[in-house]
Amino acid sequence: MIYGHYDVQPAEPLDKWHSDPFAPEVRDDNLYARGASDMKGQVAAAIDAVESILKTGDLPVNVKFIIEGEEEIGSPHLGPFINEHKELLACDFALNPDTGMTAPDLPTITYALRGLAYFELRVYGPKQDLHSGMYGGAIHNPGQAIAELIAGMHDANGRITLPGFYDSVRALSAEERAEIARLPKTDQWYLEQTGVPALWGESEFSAEERVGGRPTLEVNGLYSGFIGEGSKTVLPAYAMAKISCRLVPDQDPEEVHQQLLQYMEAHAPKSIRWEVINMVGGPPSISDRNSPWAQAYLQAAESAWGVRPAFKREGGSVPVVTDFQQTLGIDVVNMGFGLPNDNVHGPNEKLDLPNWYRGINALIHFFYNLG
Amino acid sequence: MIYGHYDVQPAEPLDKWHSDPFAPEVRDDNLYARGASDMKGQVAAAIDAVESILKTGDLPVNVKFIIEGEEEIGSPHLGPFINEHKELLACDFALNPDTGMTAPDLPTITYALRGLAYFELRVYGPKQDLHSGMYGGAIHNPGQAIAELIAGMHDANGRITLPGFYDSVRALSAEERAEIARLPKTDQWYLEQTGVPALWGESEFSAEERVGGRPTLEVNGLYSGFIGEGSKTVLPAYAMAKISCRLVPDQDPEEVHQQLLQYMEAHAPKSIRWEVINMVGGPPSISDRNSPWAQAYLQAAESAWGVRPAFKREGGSVPVVTDFQQTLGIDVVNMGFGLPNDNVHGPNEKLDLPNWYRGINALIHFFYNLG
Predict the structure, then answer these.
(1) Cα distance from B220 to chain A (closest Cα, Å)?
(2) Distance CA A341, CA A350 (A)
(3) Is A2-113+284-370 a CATH 3.40.630.10 domain?
(4) A308 touches chain B (CB under 8 A)
């Protein structure tokens, strides 16, 4: 079964495009259009590969396509649809061309995606905002209390301190680490992309290992008191933090929720009240790098590009992969022919055509390898 | 010289008043009107005391009044005016009836006011907001970094860790602590007023000592990333905290600014950039409890109420007192007849008339005691 989506992100800002985003235009070796890379081009490559085999003979395997139009808004109807149509969708495995190549000329299999657990932590102090002169020194400031709680969630080596947080984390094998070390996303690349003066995180792992293979706890938002221009001497009644964890196999979002509650019960001072709102969550996913399907694509891509493909772990989350794995009980091969500089979601999105033709070639090889 | 101000806070919300805020009305023993307690009533008491002495003979001392109309907006023109008219304002000391009584039947001399130093701490991470999945684990999150920095500004005993922060702090004497222990603002009072589950702060001092006699560092505001409803998996580029210190004698706002910079230089991690904006500041003030003026008022108030007045330190700041002390080189006796339940700045502000008459009586005694 081959997955795809035909919906795209809005094309705005239109004045930044050099050609009409919905009238594809070829310039040099690139096709410019909204959705060219994410992911109409990838869907077209799969259809073209099947068509080209059918023109010369029979497909060596049976193929189903599942193509949706809601991916960019989080696929709200796809999970229930899969659950209701398990027989219709029955298959040996799914091919998901909605991930890309980690560099030009380096075909890539994304074999792991991180899960997500998202919380809002609320800290309550006095029943109303107070005058910081009349009460400061006697009342625990919720802005300070939430800072103390957040600071305690990592140790000095960047490790997360929620009780038992790493118990379920599947270790990166030496073989995986060697694969990740082949990738062009070096620590230097992370420095240049982000402009930070120094990287941060668990010191025994490279940045790419930390992003793909290790779980994180991030402050996505932080609020307390007066944040306008100027000064106001308020002792706030309330503080809030949005906190999310990216999870790796075999962590579970609900388990992490319980670990956060345990951390708060152990560390929240008696001078404040608190609550944790459990907002959204999705489990991590991992695919078998040695499955027949992964190996078939590996060999096909090596034939097309003349280089051994890279195996990578992706830091983000793609919920449909977990739906396929958990609801249909099948494995997923995540690949694709998009390049890091395709301007996905931005103006002048493009598809590298020579690379795309190699991709169609790889898929033709793939179907024959499977057969 | 007697200080006063005739301006008032806005009377809104008008529908919460039981009578017209600008048509004084006596009900039971109280006069209800905006400014009745803060501080037209206090100014009137001083004028009435002088007038009543003049009706029966000569004033035993020379009196100057300095009455302004900008106190509620921070007296922007008073400091420069004092500076330009030192000769006109020359006097032995100032009486400031703009502080109140700490409890009914307990006349009070406020002999110390805290100063203020207000900062904005800005922490910069990546050059733009990042996808928390694609970069989380490799980049130091500015929301987390600012939490770590804020958490480090106090130790486990509630003491501020800025280098040298307590070096200039004048210790509370055993006599002062005994005076403060007489005040009705017990730890229990602070608990009830604020509704917090437990108090917080330097454990070797009572809440009232901490608020009046000890310096503080407060988070007045805290911001980073996404703080709207719902979830957004952003790794923020920026975090900000409004931080203010209430200062006690003999601290200096600029000294504290330098201490904060030193703290940041010592503790800010290499993975972020930061800056400290120095916003507003005012020095603390303390008056001599044993000056002839303070003792004269002490005896006068004891005569009027039949109870020895309390000496208290106030947690807030009254900049004009420092102007008098520093520009004119005179001491200030801070007193007044307002009560804690006068609804100052709120609807139905009132003045307790029997107490107010005792106040006029106290002032008459005071002028004779001085003479």
Answers:
(1) 5
(2) 9
(3) yes
(4) no
